[in-house]
From TrEMBL:
PANTHER family: ECTOINE DIOXYGENASE (PTHR20883:SF48), PHYTANOYL-COA DIOXYGENASE DOMAIN CONTAINING 1 (PTHR20883). One of its GO terms (molecular function) is dioxygenase activity. Keywords: Dioxygenase, Oxidoreductase. This is Phytanoyl-CoA dioxygenase family protein. Coiled coil: none annotated. InterPro entries: Phytyl_CoA_dOase-like.
Length: 277
């Protein structure tokens, strides 16, 4: 990890925004050149899935895409993003989940049906004994297509709802919750969001395909949410990337980590010691 990445460290204003609203938007996180490379690899995978029988008119949810190309691997510890992730969650973290989503034009008329609002992490939200629910993890969504206008399959959120265990939904399943907004961003934008933030996907009523990469970071004692077949990448990765890809000395190292388990901690003690004050 190059110390130059600290120029992208989480600012106090960004921390305040994330803590209060549950999300943070970082424009131009990816250069146009990087968006082009990632889009080409995204399209290669998407087109392959369609050839294999996926219905081109329905959304594609494809997890465990990280090993598919070096451009995806390089985002695991991306210098503009990871410093903000550890600024929010701390050093005992790794990439526990990743998926790409392609949302093609629905071909349907626009309607006002209530979207599928939810918090991430499934059973965690029913079995954790705390209020509000614990943060535990966050996701970073990299947008490769232009969703700077509504009705393009936008990701919808209710700002500030991450501290609410429930969300009031219309009983007749018409309309969206109070305060709900679409996230409208340009290609190359990264959106960080707390796993507790109430959010929903929406139909794509446009004529373009929405393309997004999601990287989920959580504490190392959280189990992976998909297969995450990345172990073969450990040997060729530097220590911090290995940590992000789930490497550990042994199972106990997920709960009581040594320096060998969490090289990010050692690196931060040297380069960002204020985190330990």
């Amino acid at each position: 990890m190059n110390p130059s990445c600290l120029q992208y460290a989480l600012t106090e204003e960004e921390r305040k925004t994330f803590n209060e609203t549950g999300y943070l938007i970082l424009e131009n996180a990816l250069s146009p050149e990087r968006v082009e490379i990632l889009t080409a690899e995204f399209d290669r995978i998407y087109e392959g899935k369609i050839r294999d029988g996926h219905d081109s008119k329905t959304a594609l949810f494809y997890p465990n895409f990280i090993p598919d190309h070096q451009s995806f691997i390089d985002l695991v510890d991306y210098e503009k993003i990871l410093p903000k992730v550890w600024g929010i969650l701390g050093w005992n973290i790794y990439l526990y989940h990743a998926h790409m989503i392609a949302t093609p034009p629905s071909g349907q008329e626009k309607n006002d049906k209530t979207f599928g609002w939810h918090q991430d992490s499934g059973r965690v939200n029913m079995e954790m004994e705390s209020h509000p629910r614990p943060r535990l993890s966050l996701k970073v969504a990299y947008f490769l297509s232009d969703i700077s206008e509504p009705d393009r399959g936008n990701f919808w959120i209710v700002p500030g709802s991450h501290l609410n265990d429930n969300l009031e939904i219309s009983k007749n399943r018409e309309g969206q919750p109070e305060g709900a907004i679409p996230v409208c961003v340009k290609p190359g934008t990264a959106v960080f969001f707390d796993r507790r933030l109430w959010h929903a996907g929406s139909p794509n009523w446009s004529d373009i395909t929405r393309k997004v990469l999601f990287y989920g970071y959580g504490y190392r004692w959280i189990r992976t949410k998909d297969d995450m077949t990345v172990q073969h990448l450990w040997e060729s990765s530097d220590p911090i990337r290995r940590q992000m890809l789930g490497a550990s000395v042994n199972c106990n190292g997920h709960y009581s980590p040594t320096d060998a388990d969490v090289p990010l901690r050692t690196w931060l003690k040297e380069h960002q010691p204020e985190m330990f004050e």
